[in-house]
């Protein structure tokens, strides 16, 4: 967690320096397009400030009022960042439309291009670094901040190309057109972050995590695990909460059931990158399960096994035993 805080602090300090540089470029050029880039930098600083706090809060241990921990704050952090980006893009479009009717004189374009080019390079390098670290640390906050910085770098590249075209052609409307295009691009990226955060806050299932868990279970399944169903995943920051039902032979005693449940818990925690809390409900098998059950020398088998079932995400997330979707040959 200290690593995450240090990385966000680095992003925050860098964002402040780059914001000042972009506003300097705006003041010496009076370019509406450069002002657009500078305005987005304010969002970078505000988002990094909140991200710094969210990483601190997500590391606070569970308490009586927050039995699942404080990890959800990371989704709220992404929501704030996406909302700020969306608002910035909207303001940029409004100002660009204003400049269509009230254009401003441009000066010192080459000097402004030089300053903006440096900020774009720094933003891209820092964003790529944060994305790499976010995968290693499984941090949504670092991921959102890294994607935002890389998006900012791409928009800066488009801005630079447009400013160069403006410099060589002298067509001033290019400056306003750039602001409009960048504003729409920024709003779209803000929407994507908002969509991701709302999905997390609403406990939308993470398809990739579910697929990873199903693959682990499929590759390591034991004969006694007759089927797995009602598999659900919730994410709380850097922790996962999973629950499912596992069908076991109905003649297993409590010690055997506990052993199988513990084995599944251990298997998942050893093979996923996030700390995982696994709640498993054990179901007894029924005669209808026999046609896909692989238990050898079963003392209560009512019919031979006639079918093999490959576990898939679509099958395991359903809240029914597998005999309701398969029929014996």
From TrEMBL:
<feature type="transmembrane region" description="Helical">
    <location>
        <begin position="7"/>
        <end position="28"/>
    </location>
</feature>
<dbReference type="GO" id="GO:0015093">
    <property type="term" value="F:ferrous iron transmembrane transporter activity"/>
</dbReference>
<feature type="transmembrane region" description="Helical">
    <location>
        <begin position="113"/>
        <end position="131"/>
    </location>
</feature>
<dbReference type="Pfam" id="PF01545">
    <property type="entry name" value="Cation_efflux"/>
</dbReference>
<feature type="transmembrane region" description="Helical">
    <location>
        <begin position="152"/>
        <end position="171"/>
    </location>
</feature>
<feature type="domain" description="Cation efflux protein cytoplasmic">
    <location>
        <begin position="213"/>
        <end position="285"/>
    </location>
</feature>
<dbReference type="InterPro" id="IPR050291">
    <property type="entry name" value="CDF_Transporter"/>
</dbReference>
<feature type="transmembrane region" description="Helical">
    <location>
        <begin position="78"/>
        <end position="101"/>
    </location>
</feature>
<feature type="domain" description="Cation efflux protein transmembrane">
    <location>
        <begin position="9"/>
        <end position="202"/>
    </location>
</feature>
<comment type="similarity">
    <text>Belongs to the cation diffusion facilitator (CDF) transporter (TC 2.A.4) family.</text>
</comment>
<dbReference type="GO" id="GO:0015086">
    <property type="term" value="F:cadmium ion transmembrane transporter activity"/>
</dbReference>
<dbReference type="InterPro" id="IPR036837">
    <property type="entry name" value="Cation_efflux_CTD_sf"/>
</dbReference>
<keyword id="KW-0472">Membrane</keyword>
<dbReference type="GO" id="GO:0006882">
    <property type="term" value="P:intracellular zinc ion homeostasis"/>
</dbReference>
<dbReference type="InterPro" id="IPR027469">
    <property type="entry name" value="Cation_efflux_TMD_sf"/>
</dbReference>
<dbReference type="InterPro" id="IPR058533">
    <property type="entry name" value="Cation_efflux_TM"/>
</dbReference>
<dbReference type="InterPro" id="IPR027470">
    <property type="entry name" value="Cation_efflux_CTD"/>
</dbReference>
<protein>
    <submittedName>
        <fullName>Cation diffusion facilitator family transporter</fullName>
    </submittedName>
</protein>
<dbReference type="GO" id="GO:0005886">
    <property type="term" value="C:plasma membrane"/>
</dbReference>
<feature type="transmembrane region" description="Helical">
    <location>
        <begin position="34"/>
        <end position="57"/>
    </location>
</feature>
<dbReference type="GO" id="GO:0015341">
    <property type="term" value="F:zinc efflux antiporter activity"/>
</dbReference>
<keyword id="KW-1133">Transmembrane helix</keyword>
<keyword id="KW-0812">Transmembrane</keyword>
<keyword id="KW-0813">Transport</keyword>
<dbReference type="InterPro" id="IPR002524">
    <property type="entry name" value="Cation_efflux"/>
</dbReference>
<dbReference type="Pfam" id="PF16916">
    <property type="entry name" value="ZT_dimer"/>
</dbReference>
